[in-house]
Amino acid sequence: xxxxxxxxxxxxxxxxxxxxxxxxxxxxxxxxxxxxxxxxxxxxxxxxxxxxxxxxxxxxxxxxxxxxxxxxxxxxxxxxxxxxxxxxxxxxxxxxxxxxxxxxxxxxxxxxxxxxxxxxxxxxxxxxxxxxxxxxxxxxxxxxxxxx
Length: 148
Prior knowledge:
Layout (H helix, E strand, L loop, with lengths): L7 E4 L2 H8 L4 E8 L2 E12 L2 E7 L4 H5 L3 E8 L8 E13 L3 H6 L6 E2 L2 E2 L2 E6 L3 E8 L11
């Protein structure tokens, strides 16, 4: 996050963090693959206080998550827009799941193919145990930290 002498930076509570996370379409999943750290971009939605991820099955990201504790982070930063910046991280156990029709609809459309293969979605649900975040804004930002 950017800072200067005018910047106001505040921590976010879990409820506000999940609310902000629901505004972002993509985030970054942190998991361990073969005992090595892996961070990959991931489509997500927030549903019922959980974070639901959607990925392409042949990539195998879901296998690293199923039954493991993972981290997921998303944020917003656009200095040209003069808006408040924020970042939220969720840590918790993850499971491969078959989401409801309503939850699948929250993702919107899916690609027809990825890497020349038909898109084969698989979903992972993170049960947040730790939700942390921060917001930073300069005075006069369009969305001040209290508006988050």
